[in-house]
Amino acid sequence: MNHSLNIFWEVDMRKSVVPRNKHFTFLVLPDGARPVLRFRVHTFILAMLPVIIVLLIAIASTLYLLHDRARGQLDQLHSKLTSTNEAYTSQLAKKEGTIKQLQNELAELAQQAESVELRVEELNKLESDVKSLVGLPKETAAAESDDTGVGGEFVAVQDADIVDLAHDTGMIFSSLGDEISDLRDRLDSTKEQAQKRLQTLRVTPTYWPTQSQRITSFFGVRMDPFSGEAGVHKGIDIAGHRGDSVYAAADGQISDTGTMSERGNYVTITHAMGLTTRYFHLSKILAHTGDRVQQGDIIGEIGSTGRSTGPHLHFEVVKHGVSVDPRPYLKMAIKGSSANVQVEKGQD
């Protein structure tokens, strides 16, 4: 093998003096009986071989640098993608938490809407009660609801449920706005009517003149307890105890006080709209002629003076000079109720 190489270099040295643009012949002399290998290479290829090697090295270096750069960019993109993915995961978790919170708040809002509906119903009932109290016509009251207990199986909420709930809640609040506006107008009107009604009731003998509401003798024809004959009773007799307070049935002015054989100690009050009330058989007179009195003021005490069989109040209502039954007026009473009136005969 070394011999063959020596020959190669000898040939190379001999060929070095050959003019350019010729060929070089390379001999490979293997050991043994193998044939000689001959290679002819043009001088241009030999001259370009270093350039080719340099180009290959440059290309390899460039490819390596590009690969290294691409790998670095890939690592940066991977790192950035990982960071972005973590950020998105965190934001998604926060958004899911926010959505859950909004769902809970929407559920609470829906409950509040139902609560407001109940309060509006209560206000409607209150308006009806106020009208009933002062004797105004009232609308039919809605059935009262009993919301003392809750329960049921827990079922996880779905998106469709939330959408329906939001829609229903929006509809409730929208209708509540109109209902509350209408209720406000009706309450203003009811307040004005109630004030007028109360003013009318104050000047009308609607206030029970005694604490007792036990009627012992009615208005109209009756058997006189003294003569035993039929006679006209121009008022009602209300039983009581001697010394019990007697109240003015309405706002007005004391027009007369005094003592008469049949009336005993008495007080007469003049009211608006041509009405007059009379209070007989008093044990004491606590008002004076000319005094202005308000409904409910004490004007005397129950007694049995005059033509009387025992302690009671004889109460009369006179309209335009004619005695009328006091009971229709007293049935409108704010304090007391005709349902509590007890009847017992025997007093005058």
TrEMBL record:
On whether Isomerase is a keyword of this UniProt record, the answer is no
Q: Which residues cross the membrane?
A: 44-66
Keyword set includes Cytoplasm: no
The residue ranges of the M23ase beta-sheet core domain are: 232-326
Q: Which residues form a coiled coil?
A: 85-126, 173-204
Q: Which UniProt keywords apply?
A: Coiled coil, Membrane, Transmembrane, Transmembrane helix
InterPro entries, A to Z: Cell_wall_metabolism_enzyme, Dup_hybrid_motif, M23ase_b-sheet_dom
Protein name per Swiss-Prot or TrEMBL: Peptidase M23
MF terms in GO: metalloendopeptidase activity
